[in-house]
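[job 0412] stage=fold_complex status=start
inputs:
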Amino acid sequence: MDDSRRIAAADEVPEDGTLLFTVSEDGDRTEAILTRLDDGTIAAFSNYCPHWTDVRLDKGSGALVRNGELVCQKHGATFERDSGVCNFGPCEGAVLETIDVTVEEGSVLLTDDDYAFENLGASQEYDRSSGNQIGF
Ligand code: FES
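[job 0412] stage=fold_complex status=done
writing structure:
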């Protein structure tokens, strides 16, 4: 197993939420989420809403999952957790970007060649009171 691509233990990925992690693409850090589907498989998507792409679905403690769907809490768009398709809301028909992962020996591994794994959790410090990023 390639430890540099290990995101988390598969057991850490919730069915009723998401697990936030950070990847990089050509040096640019970006966030992604893992979620466990009803059949036990694990899917990964970009953490940004297609409606307003600076809005994060998971702000660090798990995205809202309601009736088995991911919910953007800004304007209430809902996304199918197996496909990432928005089936309701202002970005209906849009699709969350899928990130390729696999489970091997109880670990979730990043298999998407476009990205390098950086860390579990957020890509930077955020001001939790406003949801905006802190300027440095
Ligand atoms: S920002 Fe997600 S629904 Fe508007």
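[job 0412] summary: Residues 49, 51-52, 55, 72, 74-75, 77, 89-91 surround FE2/S2 (inorganic) cluster (CB under 6 Å).
[job 0412] exit 0
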